[in-house]
Write a structure and sequence with these properties.
Layout (H helix, E strand, L loop, with lengths): L2 H13 L3 H13 L6 H8 L16 H12 L3 H11 L2 H10 L13 H13 L5 H14 L3 H9 L11 H13 L5 H11 L2 H17 L13 E4 L3 H8 L2 E6 L6 E2 L3 E4 L3 E4 L8 E3 L5 E11 L6 E6 L5 E4 L3 E6 L2 E6 L8 E5 L12 E5 L5 E5 L2 H13 E4 L6 E7 L4 H15 L5 E5 L2 E7 L1 H11 L17 H15 E3 L5 E5 L2 H13 L5 E7 L2 E8 L6 E4 L2 E11 L8 E7 L4 E4 L2 E4 L2 E5 L2 E5 L11 H10 L4 E12 L4 E2 L2 H6 L15 E11 L2 E2 L5 H11 L6 E3 L2 E4 L2 H13 L4 E6 L9 E9 L10 E9 L12 E8 L4 E8 L5 H12 L2 E2 L6 E2 L6 E3 L4 E5 L2 E5 L12 E5 L2 E5 L11 H18 L1
Parallel strand pairs: 1-37, 32-34, 40-42
Antiparallel strand pairs: 2-35, 2-36, 3-25, 4-5, 6-7, 7-25, 8-9, 8-24, 10-11, 10-12, 10-27, 12-24, 13-14, 15-16, 16-18, 17-18, 19-20, 20-22, 21-22, 23-24, 26-27, 28-29, 28-30, 30-31, 30-32, 32-33, 36-37, 38-39, 38-43, 38-44, 39-40, 41-43, 44-47, 45-46
Helix pairs in contact: 1-2, 1-9, 2-10, 3-12, 4-5, 4-6, 4-8, 5-6, 6-9, 7-8, 10-12, 11-12, 13-22, 14-17
């Protein structure tokens, strides 16, 4: 199949508003595909090159895609960036520029789907030094052989912004329509998908073996099975009424560390000690992005645990425990290496940060004050030179309504410099009356300029205290930034004893942001914290040579100055670790730090999260436990991994489990937080698919397959038809620190990926008012008003999932529960996934200011569920929908996909529970 056929279908999908129409477009597309193409078409249509659990991504940022567009079209990078700022869509930018291409390819050939897929797969598998150049060449090759329509989607693909809105259920329905003309095969296709988590494999099986192949579909080791989901009921009595005699299990709430003074890059705060980092802060990761801290762990160092003191040539020293990995350049590759294995002359890796937001910086600005006075200022090199000096030795004040701006110079050594800046103030800022005062050996230049003073104070000061650089400063040109540094050096700079240029400031975030902007321009600057006269200062260091620091392929490589074992670390010392959203790393000064379903085949073991993410490396002792305790040669087990206190019998919180210190020596027991796997189901073993066996048989087989040992335990279970005994087991589980219980139908099959009453969960929060959070999908957001206008974010429009219709239906608007930092985060985060119109899988009568792609799930608390004519969740032709009363945002649920959000049916059941409880209380 030629890729142009795929591009035409994508254009139709992008324009449609109806899910049934999407299904029809895809089924027609599938009819044109060959058996060896269908998996590629499915993957490409969902913006991936492999099923998500493989973890294979193209990994090409917007800047590199812009470079590829420039090479392919012959237009300059500036032209590409200018066009992108206008369209807000790199795909449309590439389409427009290719339509008016300056240079034509002499030997272009029509692209096939296979060729496009192969190039993207090669790009995804390319890594190490020079990999970005190789990826750009692969993309350029595709662009050179594309027509404008093809270019739109080829350009969007590597940056993850295909914007088609094609979900898994739509693909399944389209496959069914391809085979029989309607959705009647959906259930059988979905079963196959739930067993392998690979839509491409399902499509390939259907094309090669027909529906009989789907019916005979077998579970595969190392393809994660989509987990079964539980329904809810509010009481033990109703569970027994629903299930009768049932199995009842406990519901489990299912870390290298660094010293507390280790400096971490935090957006908006600069370099701060890790002990001061808060959950919700955005920290710089090894990929150059700022990501949210979702959990933070503090512990004491273990007995006998080695602690290292490490310092690079461009950063402060810090402490790090053994086993903690840092990113190191080894040979031709960048590798995560435990600190104890890092050589003293190694090069460590630091990212070029992605801080630009592609703002168009004007060449001139117009300012106006409250009295209507206007003035224009050219933003040229001399202006930025002035700004550099003002950042170092300038001020603004409002003493006695003087509206003053001023600069300070050394009377003995800076007379000529004072005259130089007086000329800039006159010529560039348009100031004719400049006052001068000499006091205590200093020359004070000052003048009145109300609109410029107001602008300076809003952009470069924080509530009249200290100095800062505004976010838009990341988008100024290289030459203007160098002029800014020159001015700052003239104010606060000096040469140190070895001839390096240094700038000293009291403002940590100012120093840090300047460093990150410099790195964007491939100018390496170090930032070091020091104390003098009882105060903390930050020193920006400009290296003289590249002997100890170099920049290559958008990566900074820095040599280690020292690495040594701390001889007698204080056992009372606290060490910390951070769990970071969508990443396993965070950056200290010029250094990057690294931070279930069980599949076994012989000695090979893989672990997958409930979101089907591969997590094997996170739990090495469980891998060892599986090899030792699982008797079956091949097996797929389900369980909860969590930290467990053997002495007290307590279970530690989920966040602590995810942060728990990992032991690379699997024989060594974790003294404080030992990790256990509580196995509760077997899905496959030694050639037998157990998902179609009743639960009581699966449990017996599980007991047979698990040998006694320290790591893997069987989940505690009781079988009862007595509501009182179920209630007692529930209360005992709560006392032991668990969420509640799961009741299981003894005769039910394993319903992979489905939410049915075969499993029912009971949590304490179901036993009263709506205290339990619901998990909602963000479908849009609103601009801020009043005090929130400055954040460009005022609230969320959220939906629940309708499993029957594969639609996301609105249930609430959320405007409370956000901190200022969260509002900034949501504006930035959601701004990246804005779409032009409501997606075909979204049903909402409320129109937000911006619709977004279906990506994020949030936990939301509310007082109660009410009926509402406004929202579409549960709405029928006869009845109004459901809504949340007084909703409050609690947290992002990074562990859940949109399809795992709370369902319409759950909301209906919770509403019924709530009504029954209110009647009982009355």
């Amino acid at each position: 199949m030629e890729f142009s056929v795929l591009a035409e279908a994508y254009e139709k999908l992008e324009a449609t508003r109806g899910r049934l129409e999407m299904m029809a477009i895809l089924s027609e597309l599938f009819k044109k595909a060959k058996p060896d193409e269908i998996d590629k078409i499915i993957y490409l249509s969902q913006g991936v090159v492999a099923p998500p659990f493989e973890g294979i991504e193209v990994g090409l940022g917007e800047k590199f895609v812009e470079e590829a567009i420039s090479v392919a079209t012959g237009y300059s990078r500036n032209k590409v960036e200018e066009s992108y700022r206008k369209t807000g869509d790199l795909g449309k930018t590439a389409e427009e520029l290719l339509s008016s291409k300056k240079q034509m390819s002499l030997f272009s050939h029509p692209l096939s789907v296979q060729k496009v897929f192969d190039n993207f797969m090669k790009m995804a598998k390319t890594g190490g030094a020079g990999s970005q150049d190789t990826k750009i060449k692969g993309l350029v090759e595709l662009l050179n052989n594309s027509n404008p329509k093809e270019v739109r989607y080829i350009t969007r693909f590597p940056i993850g912004k295909l914007r088609l809105g094609v979900g898994d259920p739509t693909i399944l329905d389209a496959l069914s329509a391809y085979e029989v003309g309607d959705k009647s095969l959906r259930e059988e296709l979905e079963r196959a998908y739930n067993l392998c988590s690979d839509l491409g494999l399902v499509g390939r099986t259907l094309f090669s073996d027909g529906i009989e192949g789907i019916r005979k579909f077998k579970i595969k080791v190392f393809n994660p099975v989509r987990p079964a989901l539980a329904e809810r009921l509010p009481s033990a009595e109703e569970i027994i009424e629903k299930l009768g005699k049932c199995a009842v299990e406990r519901k489990y709430d299912g870390f290298r560390c660094i010293g507390g003074f280790t400096p971490i890059y935090v957006k908006g705060k600069g370099i701060i000690s890790v002990r001061d980092v808060k959950v919700g802060d955005l920290v710089l990761t090894h990929k150059g992005n700022f990501k949210k801290v979702v959990a933070k762990n503090k512990r004491r160092i273990d007995k006998g645990e080695r602690v290292f003191r490490v310092q690079t040539f461009l950063g402060n020293s810090f402490r790090i425990t053994e086993g903690h990995k840092i990113l190191v350049h080894v040979g031709s590759k960048d590798e995560w290496t435990p600190i104890e294995d890092v050589s003293k002359d190694a090069e460590v890796v630091f990212p070029i940060p992605n801080i630009s937001e592609n703002r168009a910086i004007p060449r001139e600005m117009e300012l106006i004050d409250g009295a209507g006075y206007r003035k224009k200022i050219k933003l040229n090199k001399k202006f930025y030179r002035f700004m550099g000096f003002w950042i170092g030795d300038g001020y603004t004040n409002d003493y006695h309504n003087t509206e003053r701006i001023g600069l300070i110079f050394n009377q003995k050594t800076e007379r000529d410099l004072c005259d130089f800046y007086k000329e800039i103030i006159s010529d560039e800022l348009g100031i004719t009356r400049i006052s001068e005062n000499i006091h205590n050996g200093a020359i004070y230049l000052y003048w009145r300029d109300p609109p410029f003073k107001e602008w300076l104070s809003k952009n470069f000061r924080r509530e009249w205290k200290g100095k800062m650089l505004p976010a838009w400063f990341a988008d100024i040109s290289r030459e203007n930034f160098l002029e800014f540094l020159e001015g700052w050096m003239e104010a606060d700079g000096h040469e140190d004893s070895i001839g390096r240029a240094n700038i000293v400031t009291k403002e940590r975030d100012l120093a840090t942001f300047a460093q990150l902007i410099a790195l964007k321009f491939k100018i390496p600057l170090g930032v070091k914290k020091f104390r003098a006269l009882g105060k903390t200062y930050f020193k920006i260091v400009v290296p003289k040579t590249n002997r100890r620091v170099r920049i290559d392929d958008n990566i900074v490589y820095v040599r280690i100055l020292r690495k040594e074992v701390v001889k007698r670390p204080d056992p009372r010392t606290n060490v910390y670790n951070l769990q970071v959203e969508d990443d396993e790393s965070y950056c200290t000064t010029m250094l990057a730090l690294h931070n279930c379903q069980i599949h076994k085949q012989g000695d090979k073991v893989e672990i997958f999260s409930r979101r089907l993410e591969r997590m094997t490396q996170m739990f090495p002792e469980i891998v060892a436990g599986v090899k030792k305790q699982v008797k079956a040669k091949d097996a797929i087990l389900e369980g909860e991994a969590l930290a467990y206190n053997e002495t007290s019998g307590e279970y530690y919180p989920f966040q602590l489990t995810m942060q728990r210190k990992r032991k690379y020596d699997v024989k060594e027991k974790a003294e404080e937080y030992p990790l256990k796997l509580f196995a509760f189901d077997v899905l496959y073993a030694d050639g037998e698919d157990y998902t179609r066996h009743p639960y009581h048989e699966r449990r017996k087989k599980l007991e047979k397959f698990i040998a006694a040992g320290e790591v893997i335990k069987l989940s505690e279970m009781t079988i009862t038809d007595n509501p009182k005994k179920l209630e007692e087991f529930f209360e005992d589980s709560i006392e032991k620190g668990m969420e509640g219980i799961i009741a299981k139908d003894l005769n039910a099959q394993y319903n992979a990926g489905a939410r049915k009453f075969a499993w029912i969960k009971l949590k304490r929060s179901y036993k009263g008012e709506l205290a339990d959070a619901v998990d909602l999908v963000i479908i849009g957001y609103f601009l801020g008003k009043g005090m929130r206008a400055k954040f460009k974010f005022g609230g969320l429009l959220c939906a629940v999932y309708d499993e029957k219709e594969d639609m996301f239906k609105s249930i609430t608007k959320i405007g409370t529960g956000f901190s200022e930092e969260q509002m900034k985060q949501f504006e930035e985060m959601l701004g990246k996934i804005k779409v032009e119109h409501k997606l075909a899988r979204v049903d909402s009568d409320i129109k937000p200011d911006f619709w977004v792609d279906l990506k994020y799930v949030v936990a939301v608390a509310a007082d109660e569920i009410t009926r509402s004519p406004t929202h579409t969740a549960g709405k029928t032709s006869e009845d109004s929908g459901y809504a949340l009363r007084f909703p409050r945002m609690m947290e992002l649920r990074e562990d859940k996909s949109p399809e795992e959000a709370t369902t319409v049916q759950e909301i209906i059941e919770m509403y019924k529970m709530q009504k029954r409880i209110q009647l009982e209380e009355a």
